[in-house]
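User: Here's a chain of 293 residues. Predict its fold as C-alpha cells.
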Amino acid sequence: MPVTHPGPVRLSRLGTNDDSPPYERFALAPLSPTIGAEIEGLDLRQPLDPDLQQELNRALLEWKVLFFRDQSLDSAQHRDLAANWGPLEVHPFLPEGDIPEVVRFTKGADGKGYENVWHSDVSWREIPSLGSILKAVEVPTVGGDTLWCDMYAAYEGLPDHVRARIDNLSAVHDFSRVFGRGMGPDELAAMQEKYPPVEHPVVRTHPETGRRLLYVNGGFTTHLVGLEPDEGKALLRRLLAESSMPEYQCRFHWTPGAVAFWDNRSTQHYACSDYYPSVRVMERATIIGDRPA
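Assistant: Prediction complete.
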C-alpha cells in the first residue's frame, strides 16, 4: 500500500488551536511547531512543588517531549523526579543502573546501539508507560541523537478513508523479537508466559488530552487483529511509515547532563546508532501509565 497524503496538513500542538497561557515558572523554547521544547531555568535536583509539577505536566502534554540541559542528577534524584508522575517500573530485560528503577544503556566499541527503530517504550506490557525520563551520562561529540515523532499528527495526517479503516482495529504487541533475541528456548518460553502478547487499540485516546493518536510501532507491534495476513501486513506497513515523516518529528543532540522527558503515550522515538565505536551512556526511569483505550 503506497504512502500518500491528502495534501498539506495543518499541524497543531494542542489539537484545536495554538493558544496557551504563558509559562510562569520557566522559559520554554520550541524545537518544532508541534513537538519538542527546551526548558530553561530549572534545577531538576530540587523537589517539585505541586504548582511547578502541574506546569511541567501542561508543557509535557502540549509539547510531548521536554529537554533540559546541564543537569546533575544522581540516580536517586532521577528516580524521585520521575516519581512525581506516578509509580516507576523495574524493567525485566534491561540492565539496571545504581538503583532498580533506573536502567543504564552503555554502548561503545564492545556493543553497538540497537534502539534504531521507531518505537514506544514497553507497549508490550498490558499497562504500558506514561512517560520516560532519559539522562545523558556520556555522549559522543558527533552522533547519537534521538528523534521523537508526534503520533497525534501521524494520525491526523492520514487520509480520511485510512482513519475510518483503523479506528476500531486492535494490534498485538510482543517483546519477543526485540528482547527475545539471544534467549534460549526455555528462557524465552518462561518470559513469554510471564509477559504474554497483548492487544491494544491501533488508535488510542490519550487519557489526559482526549485526543486520538496512532498507537502501533515498529519495535513491538507484530500484527493487526482480524485481518487477512496480506491485508494486515500491508496496512501495518502503511501505518508504521507515518513515523518517518519529518514534519511530525523533532531531533535532539545530547550533551552531558542533558535530560529528556517524553510522553510515551503520544510519541515514538528513534535513537540513532551512528556513533560506533564511540561511547554513549544513558540512564532512564520509566513511569507506569494506564491501559490504552
